[in-house]
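Q: Hi! First time doing this. I have a protein sequence and I read that you can turn it into a structure. Is that right? Here it is:
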Amino acid sequence: MVYLVGAGPGDPGLLTVRALELLRAADVVAYDKLVSPAILSLVRPETELLPVGRRHGTGVTSYRLHPEVMARAKAGRTVVRLKAGDPFIFGRGGEEAEELAEAGIPCTIVPGVSAALGAAAYAGIPLTHRLHASDVTFMSGHDVDGNRDSFTDWSKAASGTGTLVLFMAARKLSASLQRLIQAGRSADTPAAYIASATTPHQHVIVGTLSSLADKTQHVDLTIPALVIVGEVVALRERIAWLEQSPLAGRRLLVARARPGRSPLAADLRTLGAEVLEMPEVEVVPSEGRAPIEATLARLQEFNGIVFGCATGVDTVVSHTPTFNVPVIAVGMAAAQALSRHGIPVTLVVRGACQEALVEHGMFLQKGQFLLVTAEGGRPNLQHELMKIGAEVETIAVYRYVHRMPTASLPPIDLVVLPSSSAARTVLSGDFGQALLRVPMAAIGPQTEAAARQCGAQSVVRAEEDSVASLVSLVVTMMKRL
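A: Yes, that's right. Below is the predicted 3D structure, encoded as structure tokens:
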């Protein structure tokens, strides 16, 4: 099977749910050169990454579908042919699908956010507007030499008042703009040049059909760009939102030690950052049910059972659905998981730091507690519980498998460390060596200490042990850097 998948314009957050599913399941990912490293970092380490795309003007090919893609498909492998933007909009996806059909190889098309839609939205330019444009025309910006007018009817496009989007516009920009003027568009029509759309390096230059070429004389022609022409471009001055975001243009790496949705990463994306979450984390049950069930069978010997994460709750409930002792949740994720399973919670502790635990010291000093953890997990929580007088026995009911990306990382502005375990996971080993000189933001003293023990050279600690405080620190640091 070959999946022709649209990767979108660059921001990993614009991948479709289906595209992400396929990237994490494929045997081979054959990708265009325009696909961002941030997207490739989402591929499993054991998946083969196969570069097969080419940029316009970098050579002539005699094939529609790259022979290496065809060979792997014929060998019975599941291949994701990952194409920038949408495969069927100036992506040669139709030609590749034709060749697969002729070869009798099953093919599924997964559309992506087109570069035109992504660039317009992230630049604050509506492609249509009730007062300015009721139609949009997509055109190829390098078909201006007169040889392919049957493919691109410039006169028809220029005669109206709708929005024009020129793909692949950089190399022949001046000729394209002049062609539109000659075909009847006013030289004063607003036009915008958008390079590296939806990425931290997005750059927008606004002018008119007559002035835009001069304003873009010094742009790097190797950077992908498109041009939007029409009265809607003038609305950017009021609508532009990306540049107003406090973390716009910043690429952050959020260290992970546990699976699931990261509220921290979501908050940082909301503030405009491009966020890479690493490593990929998978939950695997601990080997052997007997030791776990033996410990849970004597649960009545404890003064309470302590859960520090949702995964521990889900795993223990699979062994025993009810508890006959007080239930303590450390953090809202554990509390919400217990509520989801209909288990009454005796005590919710706001965090695993000493300050949060001390608030409930009178209860936690009453005897021995069973702490549910991953294999080798939560030594800091166990230590802090014991410091306030609790007796703690741990039970490891699951383990984490961490998969580091195999593709090289793009430049990172800041590493964000939400826990000491996440710091050790990301900064240890060969992968972490490349990050040790990057500035880091840590959530608390133990996380800061863990980062420094791994060799991190510049670590700043948040004022409070909370996600909100860590996000505030990131914004402050990015303003200074």
